[in-house]
UniProtKB/TrEMBL annotation:
Domain of life: Eukaryota
Domain called NADH:flavin oxidoreductase/NADH oxidase N-terminal: residue spans: 9-342
Protein name: NADH:flavin oxidoreductase/NADH oxidase, N-terminal
A Pfam family matched in the record: Oxidored_FMN
Family of the protein in this entry: Belongs to the NADH:flavin oxidoreductase/NADH oxidase family.
GO molecular function: FMN binding; oxidoreductase activity
Keyword Ion transport: no
Length: 369
C-alpha cells in the first residue's frame, strides 16, 4: 500500500504474537455458500481476495456441532470432512500473509427442527420460543421451533463441543478462534436476562448468566492457549429478542472476567447496532469496556473510513472490524489508504447460494489508480 502509515487505521499493531500491518479487520460474515455445511472451494477465492499481508480476517460463523445450525448452507467444523475442507482456504489466506481466526458458533433457539438431527427441537437456555422474524431479504419469514431448555447436566457437553471445535480449527490451520457470543445466539441466550429464565447456577444473577460463556472461554483457552482466543459480544443489541436490562453492567462484567483468562482479544459490537445491520443514534459507547479489558479490543458496527480513523486516533479501540464495506470491497484497506470511492454492497446477494455472484465478483480498484 503506497500510503501505508499515513492514517491511523493503517498503522501496525502487535496483537499478542501476531504482527498486524494495519487495523482493518474482516468482520465475520455469514454467506450461506457452504453446501451441506461443508466449506466449498469458492471460499478460497473469496477469503484470499480479502487478505492483505499482516491483515486479520475472521471467518463467517461456523457451527460447532450438528445442533448448532439454523440457516441453510452455513459451514461447520465438527466433522473431519469440514476440517479438511477448511484447510485449502486457510492455506490461501496464509499464502498471502493474512492472520485467520475461525468464528465458532451455536445458534441455540435461532433454529427450527428442520435443521436439527432427527427433527428434534433446538436447544437453548430457555424453552421460550422466538416469534417468527422477517429474514434479512426483507420478504421471507423465518419460523422457529420452540426450543428445549438444556438440563444443567447437559451443559458440559455443549461447552465441550466448543472445545473440540477450537481443536479442529487448529487442525485446519487457523491462527485462532473467535467465540461467537453475540447477536442472540446460544451464548447470548444465556447472558441476556430477556431470554435466560433459568433457576440453576446458569441463570438469575449476572454472574450465573455469564457462567456458560466463561466456561466456554476457559475450555477453549485450556485446549488451544489464551493467545489464540477471542470472543465477540453484543451486550447492547436486542437482535433475535435477546436484550438485556443492564447491558453496560453485562459488558463490563464480561470484559473484567475475561482478564482472568488472559485471552487475546475482546470484540464488541457498537451499541448503535440494533440488529446486525441496522444503525441508529445512541448515547452509549464501548469505551468503558475498552478500558476494562486488558488485551486487544476490536470494535465493530457501522464504521466507515473516517469513523474508524477517529476511533483508533482517539484510542477508543485497537482494531476496527468492517462488515458490509469489506464484503463489497475486497481491497478495502487499499481503498482506505488511497481514500478512493467504495463499491456499494448489494444486500440481495448477501445470502444467496451462488458461488460467484455477490461473492467474488465485486471489483478491485484498477491497478493504475
Ligand atoms: C451478510 C452479513 C452476515 C453476517 N454474518 C455474521 C456472522 O456470521 N457472525 C457475526 O458475528 N456477525 C455477522 N454479521 C454482523 C457483522 O459482522 C457486523 O457486525 C455488521 O455487519 C455491522 O458491521 P458493518 O456496519 O461494518 O457492516 C453479519 C452481517 C452481515 C451484513
Amino acid at each position: 500500500m503506497t500510503g501505508e502509515g499515513s492514517i491511523p487505521l493503517l498503522t501496525p499493531y502487535q496483537m499478542g504474537k501476531f504482527q498486524l500491518s494495519h487495523r482493518i479487520v474482516l468482520a465475520p460474515l455469514t454467506r450461506q455458500r457452504s453446501y451441506g455445511n461443508v466449506p466449498q472451494p469458492h471460499a478460497i477465492l473469496y477469503y484470499s481476495q480479502r487478505t492483505t499481508k499482516g491483515g486479520l480476517l475472521i471467518t463467517e460463523a461456523t457451527g460447532v456441532s450438528d445442533t448448532a445450525q439454523g440457516y441453510p448452507h452455513t459451514p461447520g467444523i465438527w466433522t473431519k470432512e469440514q476440517v479438511e475442507a477448511w484447510k485449502p482456504i486457510v492455506d490461501a489466506v496464509h499464502a498471502k500473509g493474512g492472520i485467520f481466526f475461525c468464528q465458532i458458533w451455536h445458534v441455540g433457539r435461532v433454529s427450527n427442527s428442520g435443521f436439527q438431527p432427527n427433527g428434534r427441537p433446538p436447544i437453548s437456555s430457555t424453552n421460550k420460543a422466538l416469534t417468527p422474524q422477517i429474514r434479512s431479504n426483507g420478504i421471507d419469514v423465518a419460523e422457529f421451533t420452540p426450543p428445549r431448555r438444556l438440563r444443567t447436566e447437559e451443559i458440559p457437553q455443549i461447552v465441550n463441543d466448543f472445545r473440540v471445535a477450537a481443536r479442529n480449527a487448529m487442525e485446519a490451520g487457523f491462527d485462532g478462534v473467535e467465540i461467537h457470543g453475540a447477536h442472540g445466539y446460544l451464548i447470548d441466550q444465556f447472558m441476556k436476562d430477556q431470554v435466560n429464565d433459568r433457576t440453576d447456577q446458569y441463570g438469575g444473577s449476572l454472574e450465573n448468566r455469564c457462567r456458560f460463556a466463561l466456561e466456554i472461554v476457559e475450555a477453549v483457552v485450556n485446549e488451544i492457549g489464551a493467545d489464540r482466543v477471542g470472543i465477540r459480544m453484543s451486550p447492547f443489541a436486542n437482535y433475535m429478542e435477546s436484550g438485556d436490562s443492564d447491558p453496560k453492567a453485562l459488558g463490563l462484567y464480561m470484559a473484567e472476567s475475561l482478564n482472568k483468562y488472559g485471552i487475546l482479544y475482546c470484540h464488541m459490537v457498537e451499541p448503535r447496532m440494533k440488529t446486525v445491520g441496522e444503525k441508529s443514534e445512541c448515547p452509549h459507547n464501548l469505551v468503558p469496556m475498552r478500558k476494562a479489558f486488558k488485551g486487544t479490543f476490536i470494535s465493530a458496527g457501522g464504521y466507515d473510513r473516517e469513523d474508524g480513523i477517529k476511533a483508533v486516533a482517539e484510542n477508543r479501540t485497537d482494531l476496527v472490524c468492517y462488515g458490509r464495506l469489506f464484503l463489497a470491497n475486497p481491497d478495502l484497506p487499499r481503498r482506505f489508504d488511497l481514500n478512493k470511492p467504495l463499491n456499494k454492497y448489494i444486500r440481495e446477494t448477501f445470502y444467496i447460494p451462488d458461488p460467484v455472484i455477490g461473492y467474488t465478483d465485486y471489483p478491485f480498484l484498477e491497478e493504475d489508480n
